[in-house]
């Protein structure tokens, strides 16, 4: 039974390698990296340093879902990552809400040379994020905050047993840690943000409700936000979030990475977890 599970998982990965822009020319090589990483981690699960793109590096071990896929895909979340690289300018401000272990913060600071403010509330994940920033000598570009972002200034319980996929805990969850949560609007250093990335495991609506001043800012151009079924556990839908962002003049797009073109969508991207939103004034087809 376990052999079949492993075979099915490898087969699904191979299919994904055949479709990803950076691995489709040689999916077998990507599969080799995938198998090698998992074999090494199976023998001894500990963080190791991996070379990435443009001289960046990161620590990764099994369970670090926010960054480990870059080992075999080279650049995971490809469309969103390339959009960031092509559109975020040097010394602009990138705000990373739910920074995880640093995929987008590393790209913003290391490649775009932007200033970064990164929020990661889970202590264990925050420590991994800090190690990745320090590894790349980006501490002067990246300001790290071990707090959550939400609708009100308060304390919230976060789960502790889901590796880098931890998030705001439900009432029935018991293995939790209490963390300070602040409204984005009450953090003065983010008021001139050019670009937001929001990935908070279903808590996105509350982040946005506490960020109305930031969303109204003339400087804010772009948002990458995770929208999927996880919002339902907190009583909100992706459609509701889409309408809320639309009320601030943001439109959803897909991104043609080859031609560097923004393609307007009718609604949020239901075919993948992330959707890119662009303020109407900055939409370029």
TrEMBL record:
<dbReference type="InterPro" id="IPR052514">
    <property type="entry name" value="SAM-dependent_MTase"/>
</dbReference>
<feature type="domain" description="Methyltransferase FkbM">
    <location>
        <begin position="96"/>
        <end position="251"/>
    </location>
</feature>
<dbReference type="InterPro" id="IPR006342">
    <property type="entry name" value="FkbM_mtfrase"/>
</dbReference>
<dbReference type="Pfam" id="PF05050">
    <property type="entry name" value="Methyltransf_21"/>
</dbReference>
<protein>
    <recommendedName>
        <fullName>Methyltransferase FkbM domain-containing protein</fullName>
    </recommendedName>
</protein>
<dbReference type="InterPro" id="IPR029063">
    <property type="entry name" value="SAM-dependent_MTases_sf"/>
</dbReference>
């Amino acid at each position: 039974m376990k052999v079949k599970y492993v075979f099915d998982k490898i087969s699904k990965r191979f299919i994904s390698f055949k479709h990803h822009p950076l691995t489709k020319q040689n999916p077998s090589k990507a599969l080799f990296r995938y198998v090698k990483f998992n074999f090494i981690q199976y023998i001894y699960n500990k963080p190791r340093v991996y070379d990435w793109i443009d001289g960046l590096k990161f620590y990764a071990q099994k369970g670090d879902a926010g960054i480990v896929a870059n080992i075999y895909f080279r650049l995971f979340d490809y469309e969103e990552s390339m959009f960031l690289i092509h559109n975020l300018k040097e010394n602009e401000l990138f705000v990373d809400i739910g920074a995880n272990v640093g995929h987008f913060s590393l790209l913003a600071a290391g490649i775009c040379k932007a200033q970064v403010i990164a929020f990661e509330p889970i202590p264990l994940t925050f420590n991994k994020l800090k190690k990745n920033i320090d590894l790349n000598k980006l501490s002067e570009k990246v300001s790290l905050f071990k707090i959550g972002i939400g609708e009100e200034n308060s304390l919230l319980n976060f789960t502790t047993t889901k590796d880098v996929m931890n998030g705001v805990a439900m009432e029935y969850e018991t293995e939790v840690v209490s963390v300070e949560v602040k409204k984005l609007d009450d953090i003065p250093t983010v008021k001139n943000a050019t670009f937001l990335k929001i990935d908070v495991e279903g808590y996105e609506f509350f982040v946005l409700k506490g960020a109305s001043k930031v969303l109204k800012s003339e400087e804010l151009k772009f948002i990458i936000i995770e929208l999927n079924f996880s919002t339902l556990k907190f009583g909100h839908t992706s459609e509701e979030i889409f309408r809320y962002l639309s009320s601030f003049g943001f439109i959803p797009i897909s991104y043609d990475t080859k031609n560097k073109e923004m393609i307007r969508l009718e609604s949020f991207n239901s075919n993948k977890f992330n959707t890119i939103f662009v303020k109407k004034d900055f939409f370029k087809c």
